[in-house]
Each structure stands twice: as C-alpha cells, then as structure tokens.
Fold each of these.
Amino acid sequence: MTNLKVLISGASVAGPALAYWLHRHGFQPTVVERAPALRDGGYAVDFRGEAHLTVLRRMGILADLERVRTGTGSMSYVNSAGKPQAELPADLFAGDIEILRGDLARILYDATRQHTEYVFGDSITSLTEDADGVTVSFEHGAPRRFDLVIGADGLHSTTRRLAFGPEEEFVKHLGVHCAIFTTANHLGLDHTGHAYRTAGKLVALHSARHNAEARAVFYFAAPQLDVDRRDVARQQALLAETFAGNGWESDRLLQDMRYAPDFYFDSVGQVHMDTWSRGRVALIGDAAYCPSSLSGMGSGLALVGAYVLAGELAAARGDHRVAFARYEEEMREYAVGCQKMGDGVAKLMVPGNRALPRSSTAITRSCRTCRARTWPPRAPARPRRTSRSATTVNMPGGKRTEESSPRPRDLDAAMVHARSEPFHGSTAQRKLAVKRKSRDHRCCLPWLAEGRAWSSSGCFL
Ligand SMILES: Cc1cc2nc3c(=O)[nH]c(=O)nc-3n(C[C@H](O)[C@H](O)[C@H](O)COP(=O)(O)OP(=O)(O)OC[C@H]3O[C@@H](n4cnc5c(N)ncnc54)[C@H](O)[C@@H]3O)c2cc1C
C-alpha cells in the first residue's frame, strides 16, 4: 500500500467520514479544521434512502443518529394570520433521518478521534506538489508533508481555490439567499414547522431540540450579493431590509435575530467541476459537488462520496491516479442527479412572482413532480463495468436492460451506479442475476447491498 499519509481539510461531514473509512482501510488521516472547535448545533440535515442508511449502518453510527434525530413531522404553509393552508409531508423535507448538522459532526468526530489526528483552528495556505507528495503550509502550524490532500472544506473550499482556481469558476449561484438562526419556540410548535411564502420570499419557523428551541429560516430570491461572508452585521441589516413588514412572524423573528446565539447567511449555490482531482489533491462533499442546501442531499452525498473515495484508494492499494479516476467515475452521475434536484427545489421554494399553489395536494404534487422530473438520471453505457440503478442496468458491453420503476421514496438510493464485478455467463443468466439482485436489494449500490469486501485485502467491514 502507498500514499498512507492523507491530509483532509474540513471537519464537518465529508472530512470525518473520509477519515473513518481511510483508517478502516489502513491509511493515516489527519484532519485540519478552520474553526477553533467542532461546530455544534446549526440547521437540520437529512439522509434519504437505502444508500445513505447503509453507509451509516456500516459505520456503526446509525443507532447514534436515531438517538438524536429531530423527529420533525409534516410542515405547514400558513397565511399571514398563521392559519395553515397546506401541509407538506415529512418525507419531503426530513428524509428518513433528520439530524442537526452539528450533532452529526459530533457523532462522526467521536467515531474517528481515537485514530485520527485533528488540528482545529488552522487552515491550509499553500500546496506544493512533487513526485513523492505534497508540502502543505498552514496559517498557524509549521509546514508538513503528506502523500495526498483531500479538500472536504465545503462550498467555499480553500483547497479547491488553491489547487483548481478561484471560486467563481466553479460555484453556480441559484438565485436564492438563505439565513438561519436559533430562536425561541414562541409558537409552541410540536415537532413541526410553519412556513409563510410571499413573492420571492419564504420565512419559516420549525421546532428543534424536541421543541425546546426553534430555527428561524429565511430564503429570498436575489442575484449574487456582494456581502462579506464574515460580516454578520451587514448580513443581518440586509435581511432586515428585505423582510421588514413582510407579514406573519417576519418582524418578530427579525428582532429575535439580533440576540441569536448563531447566525448563518449565505447564497444558495452549487459546485460544478469537470474534474474533482488534480495530481495528489482531490475534493469531496460540498467542495467538489455541492448540490445546494435546498436539495436535501448534501450530507448523504458527502457521506457516500467519502465511502467511495476511501474504498477506491484501498482497492488501488493507494495509487491515487487509479483511485481518483474511479471515484469520479462512480460518483459523477449520482452527484449530477442530486444537483438537478437542488435546482428544482430552489425554483419551487422561492418562485419569484409565481403564485403559491393553494391546496395541500397541489403543493405536494409540485414537490413530487419536481423530484420526479429530475430523478433518476439515466445510466451511461459503460463497456468496462457492470453498472445499474433501479431503473436501468448496463450489462458488460454496454447493453441496457430496463427494470421496473421504483417507488419515488426509493429513487435516491438508486442514484449511484454500481461498481461490481463483470458477470461471466450467458445473457439469460446475467439478466436473471441482475433481476434477482435488484429484487433483493433496494439499494442500488451493489457493493453496499451485498456486503462484499471492497478490496482484495477484505478490509471493508
Ligand atoms: C442552511 C443549510 C441547510 C441544509 N439542509 C440540508 C438538508 O436538509 N439535508 C442535507 O442533506 N443537507 C443539507 N445541507 C447541506 C449539508 O449541510 C452539506 O451538504 C454537508 O454538510 C456537506 O458536508 P461537507 O463536509 O462537504 O461540507 P460542510 O458541512 O460545509 O463542512 C465544511 C467544513 O470545512 C471547514 N472549513 C472551511 N474552510 C476551511 C479551511 N480553509 N480550512 C479548514 N477547514 C475549513 C468548515 O468549517 C466546515 O467544518 C444544508 C446546508 C445548509 C447551509
């Protein structure tokens, strides 16, 4: 095995998840995080479908997530008087498990800290690659040598900027800005949320920490704004200007905002890159393929990406050229599918001047249509490998077999196309084997569903 020493930038979801799998495969991960300590609490993220749940199960942390899940049920759209107008089912917003991002980061950190070196309060400032490795300099610490560097430092990734170029080349603004902060649950919401929508704006309040507190959420449509990401005072002023007199609880929440213990503000964006690796540096999670906060898929995508990248590195015995190429091959279409969904939800949630559908059924139909339109993407023909999703199966040689359509709930699990061994046998035998497997395993990552060891060393589970 080569390239054992791996530096990961970012300790949120993708970074610690990658550290977990790299260690399991025999690598030595170091994680550097800009924040002075693990960032707790924050907004809720969710996991959807069997692919996400299987990775969590294999990491042995699914039960930990279950313990701290938010338990949020359906959400209601309300009118300016706070009267519910339409109900949105829980699975559209909370997925299979919803958890606060900070709680997730804590669980991942606890699962890795015994065997991973964590450096908090520092950031990479330069990367100098040569034939044997990468010399990394830091804002505070002394320069160090690593075999590989993986950027898991989010939408505004420093690693991406240093290795690939300026952010503007890769981040696509979806025309929406978002602010979130913790506040009192003054409406007494019980594991639910209320959302109020006007043209180009959405304000929501949902209960958190089992109703002990609430999260206020503001979305508004606007072109890319020139606001310093660290200038909280300016961001709050902008939000106040935008939502003053907007109706429902807007003014009350804007007042509460001044006393919030946390405040998050950013444009809603996606990352689009032609390649996720350059030499010994690769990207993962939001840094590489952020689907946007509105897609509801970012955390699961980051988690699966970590699993695939570590698995490919192990399978290639540390050869980064082989592993990075395979990682991209496995992940790209899944990532693109998640991004299409982010696009659709952005238009649905803050639809400019378009009128809000009135009835609950109409809104739910809009949401489901938005998902159905963008999911699932078609599988590309891949002559070298067998790949399959719940709707298409690529046979060796590129022949495609249609499977029966999965239920909408299962579509997300079906997005990643499988890395599986070529099947040697007659066409009829191959079809039978594929059908049997797809019936037995709703998860369409065969190597996940089948519990097979990833690498020849069998270090997978
Ligand atoms: C408001 C909001 C709501 C969301 N809702 C959902 C949802 O419902 N469902 C869902 O699945 N996803 C949701 N997401 C997306 C989800 O949070 C991300 O997709 C997921 O966290 C990606 O994980 P990541 O580790 O790649 O990046 P991030 O979680 O962004 O983490 C990046 C880490 O890198 C650190 N970092 C940044 N710069 C540096 C540096 N220079 N050096 C070192 N460290 C650095 C950061 O401090 C952070 O810890 C939401 C996101 C937001 C913003």
Note: Residues 9-15, 32-35, 39, 43-46, 101, 123-124, 152-155, 158, 178, 180, 264, 285-287, 293, 296-300, 302 surround flavin-adenine dinucleotide (CB under 6 Å).
Amino acid sequence: MSQEHEETNHGLIKTPMQTLVAAGLGFAAPVFIIMGLVSFYSSGTKTGVGAIPTPQALEQRIQKVGESEVGDPAKIAAAAAATPVAAAAAPAAAPAADAGKKIYDTTCVACHGTGVANAPKFGDKEAWAPRLAAGFDEVLKIATQGKGGMPPKGGSSASDADFKAAVEYLVNSAK
Ligand code: HEC
C-alpha cells in the first residue's frame, strides 16, 4: 500500500510542476536533506512498524532533492547575482551628496536645524529665497567666509568640495 503511494508521489513530482516546486524549495533543499538523513538514520535504528518501506522511500526522496538541487544552482546564482548588484548600485550613486549630508548632520544642524541666531533653517523656503536670489555662488561665498552668527565654513574643517556639498544639501532642502 505505502509503496504504491510512494510511486504515485514520484509520478506527480516528476511532472513539470517539479520545476516550480524545485525553484520554490531550492533554498529548503538542505533542510530536507538533513531531515531526510535524520529520519533515515533514526528509522534505521528503530526496527518497529513501518521501518522497512521507509528507508527506501527516504533514500529516493534524498535523491530527488539532490537532483533538484543540481538543477537549481544556475537559478540561485542568477538570483544571488542580481541582488548584490542592485544593492551595490545605490551607495555608489551619490557620494558627494552623502558627504554634504554628513557634514550637515554633524556640524550645521546645530544652528540651521533650529534657527539659532537667526540662521536660515533647514527647509525654510522663506528664509532661503532672498539669499538664493543672489545666486548659489554668492551664498556659498558668504557661507565660506562667514557672516554674523555664521562662522567661516560653519566652523567646520571640511574641504572646499565637501563644504560646497553641505551648502548644496542645506540649500536644496528649501527649493
Ligand atoms: C554657530 C551656528 C552656525 C553653524 C554651526 C552653521 N551656520 Fe550657517 N549660518 C548661521 C547663521 C546665524 C547664518 C545667517 C548669517 C546672516 O545672514 O547673518 C548662517 C547662514 C548660512 C548660509 C547662508 C549664507 C547667505 O547667503 O546668507 C549658508 C549657506 C550656511 N549658513 C551654511 C552653513 C553650513 C553648510 C554649515 C555647516 C558646515 C553651517 N552653515 C553651520 C549659523 C551657523
């Protein structure tokens, strides 16, 4: 009875469905292998009811999983290759903007986050519009040299390029 049942299962597994099932279970294959081995060995030590048909069935199941695993690496490799590429593309996209945000977050936010000493606030369009009317270069120049409560370069020791990125980051918040 149970052997007939197993054979019916084999027929089903070998249908084209197996491709889908194998793809879905590809990552679970090691688990099934381990489960299969554990069951195989534990049922081997047990000589009780059902012990005789089970090792054969499990052996075949182990082979099946092994087969599907052999078929899968190409798909798995393709999937694995696609993921890191997508993840790696993002950080490489905007290094300058990152530097600007970093400087802003560590230095400029102290005044421009809350508007200390009438500093134009981050994202405050009304405060920035009249300054930007003079053009970005002028804003950058004033910020670099300092003015009133604004220390030269905002008191930072950033490079010119990084400071410019910080100004851009700050100014773009209010556009
Ligand atoms: C100690 C407080 C303080 C810090 C820190 C500070 N600022 Fe300012 N910032 C000011 C104040 C106050 C003003 C307004 C000056 C004025 O118009 O009298 C200002 C103005 C500016 C302006 C406008 C310049 C213009 O066109 O009028 C820019 C741009 C600017 N800051 C950028 C930065 C950047 C970038 C940083 C960080 C690297 C920074 N600030 C850090 C206080 C600060």
Note: The mean pLDDT is 76.
